[in-house]
Amino acid sequence: MMYTVRIESLDREIECRDDQNILDACLRAGVWMPHACTHGTCGTCKVDVLDGEVNHQDASAFALMDFERNEGKTLICTATPESDVTIDADVEAEEGVEFHPVKDFVGTVSALEDCARETRRVVVDLDQDIVFNAGQYVQVRIPGDDDVNRSWSVASPPGQPNQIELNIRRTPGGRGTDGWVFKDLEVGDTVQITGPYGRFFFRQARENPVIMIGGGTGLAPLKSMVRHALENETGQTIYLYHGVRGQADLYDGEYFRELQDEFPDQFHYRPCLSDEEGVEGTSSGLVTDVVMEDFDTLRGHVAYLCGPPPMVEASLKMLIKKRLFPRDTYREDFFDSSDKATGGVRSPLMRTS
Ligand SMILES: Cc1cc2nc3c(=O)[nH]c(=O)nc-3n(C[C@H](O)[C@H](O)[C@H](O)COP(=O)(O)OP(=O)(O)OC[C@H]3O[C@@H](n4cnc5c(N)ncnc54)[C@H](O)[C@@H]3O)c2cc1C
Ligand code: FES
Q1: Which of 75, 83, 79, 102 is nearest to 20 (CA)?
Q2: CA of 32 to the centre of ligand 2 (A)
Q3: What is the DSSP code string of 35-68?
Q4: From the CA of 340, how far away is ligand 1's center (Å)?
Q5: Can you tell me whether residue 269 is helix, strand or coil?
Q6: Residue 10: CA atoms inside 13 Å, Cβ hemisphere, count?
Q7: What is d(CA 257, CA 268) in angstroms, rounded to the nearest whole number?
Q8: Closest Cα to atom 44, ligand 1: which residue?
Q9: Phi-psi domain of 235 (left: phi exceeds 0; alpha: psi -120 through 50; beta: other)
Q10: Which of 124, 139, 169, 132 is nearest to 306 (CA)?
Q11: What's the pLDDT tens digit per position in 143-157?
């Protein structure tokens, strides 16, 4: 069954199936709506339902509380229409930013490599070019009878549109990683991919120096941004911090060191080990402490934070102490199913990019 969804603030109408979430219908129709996790966890896609009925589906009880449901709010990344619907949302236009419609892709795994402890690099050739902004992510369908997908950030740059690189960390007991990527997935396998998603991407128009902090595989979207910025000579000075526990968790160090040699004025790479000391070419300590030490102030910078929610949260607080505030900070929290069930880490200061 097909319903009409009217987005009041944009004066737009789109068609949405009764088994399709409203965000998906919007993004496929080229109507940009704010979103981040696309799994009912972060609350970024919350809208007011002005008219009609929706089914909230499996929105997290923390991201969409009972009183909000009673007030007529919903999360459009999970909600499906049960009638024609009118919604209203704050959709901020951002100058110099182009959003690209979501599409479906069939991919073939062309390379699979254990690049660090419990971390796999998966390279996928696509059946058609993907147009995206550096830092965005895709959803990959997990094999099974149900319709389950997982979000993984694209580590390759937009200038390489027919092949994407993903950096995936194993989550013990996780269905997509432990149960598939680290178990059955092989070179030559076919994978179903949808994308691009998210608002965590490189703001090319902002000329300020850039601080990037990635925890573990939170490096992935930052790698895409760094490559995009350097290959396109966007001009910003970039400081990339990669925070991990030990040397075994680091990956792509040689690649970033070569980039640093090639662009000595524009790119600075700093791997940080929280649990090991004295490893050549690395700093020891929590990545947040290392950044604290390196800068007297971060006023006038722009920051990109990505990785496990507690690291992103700690980085945000550290940046504020250094006079870099949330309006100049873009963040991507790698929420998983446990965050959806427990509420994850939320900050009143939070601006999900
Ligand atoms: C925008 C975005 C981008 C991301 N990009 C990346 C990336 O580039 N690389 C990367 O490695 N990860 C990334 N992630 C995280 C990724 O999407 C997955 O969450 C992660 O890979 C784990 O998936 P999984 O299927 O293995 O685990 P899941 O099946 O989601 O399980 C995760 C954990 O939760 C537990 N769990 C499951 N269900 C419940 C429940 N009901 N209650 C309590 N606990 C439960 C599981 O036992 C497990 O420990 C990203 C996340 C987001 C939101
Ligand atoms: S995008 Fe809908 S809750 Fe995160």
Answers
A1: 79
A2: 14
A3: -SSSSSSS-TTEEEEEES-EE-TT--TTTS-HHH
A4: 9
A5: strand
A6: 21
A7: 8
A8: 338
A9: left
A10: 169
A11: 998 889 999 999 999
Distance (Å) from CA 190 to ligand 1 centroid: 21
pLDDT at residue 254 tops 60: yes
Q: How far is CA 254 from the centre of its chain?
A: 24
Q: Name every residue whose Cβ is closer than 8 Å to that of residue 36 and which is 6 or more positions away in sequence.
A: 42, 44, 45, 198, 199, 200, 332, 333, 352, 353
Determine whether the shortest distance from the Cβ of 344 to ligand 2 is under 6 A. no
Report the distance separating Cα 59 and Cα 296, nearest Å: 42
Q: Is the CB of 41 under 6 A from ligand 2?
A: yes
CA distance 53 to 337: 27
Ligand 1 centroid to Cα of residue 185, in Å, is 17
Residue 215 has pLDDT above 70, yes or no: yes
Phi, psi torsion values for 330, nearest 5 degrees: -110, 140
DSSP collapsed to 3 states, 155-179: CCCCCCCCEEEEEEECCCCCCCHHH
**Position 344 confidence tier, pLDDT thresholds 50, 70, 90:** low
Residues 6+ positions from 134 with CB-CB distance below 8 Å = 157, 158, 201, 202, 221, 224, 225, 227, 228, 229
Its pTM stands at 0.96
Half-sphere exposure of 194 (CA within 13 A, CB side): 15
